[in-house]
C-alpha cells in the first residue's frame, strides 16, 4: 500500500467550510479539529468522507462492510474481542511521506462506555434506551488535513503501489480537489427554526439526589472512594446536526472537537480530555499516554486574578486529592499493558488554560509491552476514572445499580486509529448524540464522602448548560 497526496494553499479555507464542501451527499464523514490547546493539540484538523470500509458492533456481534468485509463473504460474526478485530482490519504499515502527520488514513469512530462489559465482569441489567452500537468505525475514502502551522492543506489517500492503484488514487485526489475549489453549498442550519428546544431528564431531581446519597453510603462503608453518577437530557432537534457543531465550537471551544456522521446517528463533541494516545517510536517501541483532568476553576478577568485562581486551585486539598486519585488510576490502567518499569508521570499537576476554565492536568506515559497492540491501550483505559470512579470496576458496578439505563457513547471514546498503529482517543464528554430527530446530552460529576446531593445535581445542570445553549443557537439560525 502506498500514500498518495497533493497539497493546496489554505489561506481561503477553514475546516468548517471545507467539511461542508467535501461531505455533500456522503453518508459517512467526519471533522476532527481543535480550537484550543496550542501545537500540542491544535496543529492539525482532519476531514474524512466516504466509507471504504466500516465496522459496527453490538456486544460481541460484529457487522463488516466494504474493505473490512470478510473474504469468506460472511460479514456478520460473533467476535470475542471486537477491538482486536478492528486493529487487524486497520493496521497496515505504510511509509508516511515527511510533511504528513501520523494519521493519513485508517479508521475514525467511537466506542461506548458499555463496550467495557466485554472486557470486565459487570452487571448488565439496565435497558439500552438509545439502542446505538457499542463500537462504530469507518475507513474514509480520502482524508483532507489542515496544517495550521504551515498553512497548507494536504489531500491524502492510500492505494496499491501499482499503475492501477495510482490511477484510482489520482481520481480520489482530483475529486477532493474539485470539491474544495468549488462553491460553498447551502449551509445547513442557517435558517432559524420556530421551535424552542425543551429538554427532559431521565431522572427527577429527587431520584438523582437519592442516587448520590446511596453512593455516598457505599463510600462511607469503604466500597469505593469516588463514583460519577450522571443524567441524560433529551430534546427535539429540528435543525441540521452540523449546525449544532458550529454552535458548540463557539460556546465550548475545546482541544478535542469532533463531528462524526454515521448516517443514522451523529456525534457532536467538544471534549477537553485525552483518554489515551499511542505513538510509534523509532526502533519499534510504542509510547502510550493518558492525561487525567480533575480540578477546575473559572478563568480570571485579569492576568492577576487568573494567577490567583491558579494558586487557589493548586492549593485546594480536596481538588488535589481527587486529582491524585485519578492520576493513580491512570498509572494503574497503563501499567496493565506497559513494559515493566516504564510507567512515569509527566507534567505533574500542571495547569492547562482554556477560554472559560482552567484545569489541573497530569500526563501518564509508558512503553507498550511486547505482545500488546494500540487498542489494548483503549480497552485498558476505558472508561476513564473521570466518568466512572475509583476503584474503577466497583464504582462502575455501583453506577449500574444506581442509574436506570445504559450510557451509550457518554463516557466512552472517540477519535482515530491510524494505519501505523497511532491512536488519539478523546474521552466522550460534553458531547451531544443526535438520532431519530432528538438530541441527547449526558452529564455527571465526581461524588466523594462529603459531597452534597443538591450541589451535585446542580453541577450536572451546569455542565449541560453550554450544550443546551449550543442547541438554542443552532435552532435560532447561524
Q: Compute the separation of the termini in Å.
A: 42 Å
Number of discrete helical segments: 11
Overall average residue pLDDT: 92
Return the structural class.
alpha+beta
What would the principal axes of the Cα set say about the shape?
globular
Largest sheet: 12 strands, antiparallel
Helix content range of the residues, please? 25-40%
Rg value: 22 Å
Number of strands: 25
Share of residues in strands: 25-35%
Unreliably modeled segments? none
How would you characterize the overall build of this protein?
It contains eleven helices and 25 strands. The strands form three sheets. Strands 4, 5, 6, 7, 8, 16, 17, 18, 19, 20, 22 and 23 form a twelve-stranded antiparallel beta sheet that branches. An eleven-stranded antiparallel beta sheet has the order 1-10-9-3-2-14-15-24-25-13-11, covered by helices on one side. A two-stranded antiparallel ribbon has the order 12-21. Helix 3 runs antiparallel to helix 9, helix 5 crosses helix 11 and helix 6 packs across helix 11. The mean pLDDT is 92.
Please provide a brief summary of the model.
30% of the residues lie in helices and 31% in strands. The chain is α+β, with helices and mostly antiparallel strands.
Amino acid at each position: 500500500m502506498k500514500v498518495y497526496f497533493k497539497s493546496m494553499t489554505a489561506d481561503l479555507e477553514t475546516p468548517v467550510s471545507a467539511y461542508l464542501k467535501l461531505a455533500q451527499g456522503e453518508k459517512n464523514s467526519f471533522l476532527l479539529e481543535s480550537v484550543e490547546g496550542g501545537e500540542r493539540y491544535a496543529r492539525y484538523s482532519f476531514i474524512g468522507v466516504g466509507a471504504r470500509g466500516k465496522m459496527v458492533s453490538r456486544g460481541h456481534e460484529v457487522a463488516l462492510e466494504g474493505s473490512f468485509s470478510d473474504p469468506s463473504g460472511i460479514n456478520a460474526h460473533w467476535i470475542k474481542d471486537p477491538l482486536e478485530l478492528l486493529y487487524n482490519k486497520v493496521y497496515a504499515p505504510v511509509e508516511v511521506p515527511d510533511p504528513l502527520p501520523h494519521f493519513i488514513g485508517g479508521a475514525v469512530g467511537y466506542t461506548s462506555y458499555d463496550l467495557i462489559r466485554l472486557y470486565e465482569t459487570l452487571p448488565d441489567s439496565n435497558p439500552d434506551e438509545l439502542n446505538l452500537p457499542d463500537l462504530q468505525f469507518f475507513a474514509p475514502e480520502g482524508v483532507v488535513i489542515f496544517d495550521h502551522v504551515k498553512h497548507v492543506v494536504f489531500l491524502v489517500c492510500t492505494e496499491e503501489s501499482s499503475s492501477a492503484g495510482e490511477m484510482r488514487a489520482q481520481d480520489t485526489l482530483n475529486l477532493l480537489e474539485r470539491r474544495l475549489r468549488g462553491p460553498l453549498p447551502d449551509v445547513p442550519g442557517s435558517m432559524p427554526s420556530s421551535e424552542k428546544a425543551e429538554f427532559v431528564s431521565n431522572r427527577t431531581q429527587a431520584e438523582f439526589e437519592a442516587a448520590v446519597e446511596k453512593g455516598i453510603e457505599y463510600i462511607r462503608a469503604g466500597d469505593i472512594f469516588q463514583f460519577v453518577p450522571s443524567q441524560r437530557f433529551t430534546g427535539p432537534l429540528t435543525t441540521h446536526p452540523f449546525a449544532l457543531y458550529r454552535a458548540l465550537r463557539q460556546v465550548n471551544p475545546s482541544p478535542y472537537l469532533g463531528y462524526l456522521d454515521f448516517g443514522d446517528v451523529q456525534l457532536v463533541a467538544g471534549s477537553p480530555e485525552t483518554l489515551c494516545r499511542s505513538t510509534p517510536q523509532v526502533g519499534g517501541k510504542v509510547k502510550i499516554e493518558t492525561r487525567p483532568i480533575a480540578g477546575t476553576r473559572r478563568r480570571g478577568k485579569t492576568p492577576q486574578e487568573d494567577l490567583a485562581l491558579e494558586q487557589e486551585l493548586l492549593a485546594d486539598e480536596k481538588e488535589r486529592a481527587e486529582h491524585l486519585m485519578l492520576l493513580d488510576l491512570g498509572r494503574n490502567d497503563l501499567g496493565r499493558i506497559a513494559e515493566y518499569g516504564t510507567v512515569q508521570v509527566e507534567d505533574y499537576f500542571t495547569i492547562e488554560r482554556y477560554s472559560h476554565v482552567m484545569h489541573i492536568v497530569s500526563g501518564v506515559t509508558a512503553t507498550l509491552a511486547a505482545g500488546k497492540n494500540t487498542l489494548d491501550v483503549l480497552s485498558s483505559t476505558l472508561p476513564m476514572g473521570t466518568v466512572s470512579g475509583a476503584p474503577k470496576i466497583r464504582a462502575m458496578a455501583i453506577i449500574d445499580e444506581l442509574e436506570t439505563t445504559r450510557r451509550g457513547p457518554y463516557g466512552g471514546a472517540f477519535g482515530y486509529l491510524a494505519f501505523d498503529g497511532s491512536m488519539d482517543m478523546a474521552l466522550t464528554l460534553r458531547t451531544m448524540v443526535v438520532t431519530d430527530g432528538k438530541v441527547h446530552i449526558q452529564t455527571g460529576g465526581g461524588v466523594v464522602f462529603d459531597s452534597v446531593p443538591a450541589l451535585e445535581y446542580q453541577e450536572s445542570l451546569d455542565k449541560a448548560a453550554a450544550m443546551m445553549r449550543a442547541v438554542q443557537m443552532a435552532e435560532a439560525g447561524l
